[in-house]
């Protein structure tokens, strides 16, 4: 925190105008709010100013400001200030406001640039993936909500054009740290094809749901997005965002989404809940490295985080010693590089690269070795896994999530209960072993052999004999399953990127009676639900769970059943 204050003070000294938004702000919760300028350390910012006091982009060699040379001055000038009413939040945690633009301004909109190669490659998969428009994808890849917002922009504009050719057109502006219902003053730093991005300068009329953030580094550390938002409002907005993504980004508007989406289940603990953190640091040849998380508004710069309020107490107690070890590692690295250079060696070890630390709070205490076996207790199960592998990081909400998944995997339909369970993406066997006592036979499938070995060991350690775990190849994931999809429930818990087309095709061919889909990415959940619904399944409900309070992330459980006309009633 001290280094952040030092850099801020030096930046103000070098270029006061670049930080003028940090003085006179009406909301004390935003003192020291970082802007684009503050995101770059002062040592790498040879800023200069013109006679008017504005930034002179052409005279600076700073990498941070190269993008300004390519700034598209439509519909706003660079650093143009606007007064906005914030209407909502994106799933990135940014406030959304709209500016009414006259048709004469919209007539001057430049033609979109040719998409980059990566964007064209994504567009070639449009039959399966949601296609994000080129301007959106260049800034926020894999965020289809922004594409939906762009569609809203166009739909609103077209509707206004039909009503009155001279009517103003709405233009979306996204503002970090602004809340719905607030009136704010913002400064534009980027114009995209269908929306603009701006920094928050001043909160003119705060929301009733605004609260003081607990962390002194909030708005600087990029780990949390909602510490300034009341927790009940966090849950309400997360529920609404899941519904929005399913209805708009997922093209599921024909379904009664408002009835299908249930209110988000909150976490019993809103702070001190997280049992795993992975601080980063960059080896530096001078001084002490900053150890923490990404600095807001940057892609790779680190803000020093000596304490994390959302991490468990045990992790925060262990963090100082881990940070000290990282500093010692940096000193050894500097010595190693100096020796290599003195010996004339020019191999890769001469580079001062970065590193990621691990602090995992488990039954054994706080572990920092990613290969060590640790255990977690969930309900009446004790599960072992490698400390560095995936396991849910909120043990306070996890039992609620597991109970919901198990109940709906077991649920009967017309008096007919599923007797077999498949846990795809089973990991160390959490869902398979939790549900095993309700099924005659359980099969867990995982492509990673270490996870299969952990799941087998967990079944033996917990005395569960009706569950077996197999390693499946991506091309034939259900080939070794000894039963058919009839009277079978399938639980899937894929990574954030969701299921690939190959898996979904095999799942639809297997034709299970019921699917329970656990997702940590509502955008990819929406994408995959389109495939499953079009493949003959009925979406019964979606239940969000807040596994990550104070952040924009949300876990969701979708329950689907095979449509009646697709059910084989033969005994």
Notable features of this structure?
14 helices; disordered N terminus; 28% helix; 571 residues; alpha+beta; globular; five-stranded mixed beta barrel
What is the structural class? alpha+beta
Order of strands, main sheet, comes to 17-16-15-18-19-21-20
Compute the number of strand runs.
21
Mean pLDDT across every amino acid position: 81
Main beta sheet strand tally, sense and closure: 7 strands, mixed
**Helix coverage percent:** 25-40%
Number of helices: 14
* Residues in β-strands, percent: 15-25%
Oligomer: single chain
Amino- and carboxy-terminal Cα gap: 67 Å
- Estimate the global geometry from the Cα principal axes: globular
Describe the overall structure.
This protein is of the alpha+beta class and 571 residues long. The protein has 14 helices and 21 strands. The chain has helices at residues 2-14, 66-69, 103-106, 117-123, 134-137, 144-163, 231-249, 257-260, 313-342, 398-410, 430-435, 449-461, 501-510, 522-534, and strands at 81-89, 94-101, 169-176, 183-191, 195-205, 276-277, 280-282, 291-294, 302-304, 354-356, 359-362, 365-367, 373-378, 381-386, 420-424, 441-446, 467-471, 488-492, 514-519, 537-545, 555-562. The protein has a 7-stranded mixed beta sheet with strand order 17-16-15-18-19-21-20, sandwiched between helices. The protein is globular. The model is unreliable at 1-29, 37-64 and 120-143 (pLDDT under 50).
Topology:
Blueprint: H1 2-14, H2 66-69, E1 81-89, E2 94-101, H3 103-106, H4 117-123, H5 134-137, H6 144-163, E3 169-176, E4 183-191, E5 195-205, H7 231-249, H8 257-260, E6 276-277, E7 280-282, E8 291-294, E9 302-304, H9 313-342, E10 354-356, E11 359-362, E12 365-367, E13 373-378, E14 381-386, H10 398-410, E15 420-424, H11 430-435, E16 441-446, H12 449-461, E17 467-471, E18 488-492, H13 501-510, E19 514-519, H14 522-534, E20 537-545, E21 555-562
Parallel strand pairs: 3-5, 15-16, 15-18, 16-17, 18-19
Antiparallel strand pairs: 1-2, 1-4, 2-3, 4-5, 6-11, 7-8, 7-10, 8-9, 11-12, 13-14, 19-21, 20-21
Helix pairs in contact: 6-7, 7-14
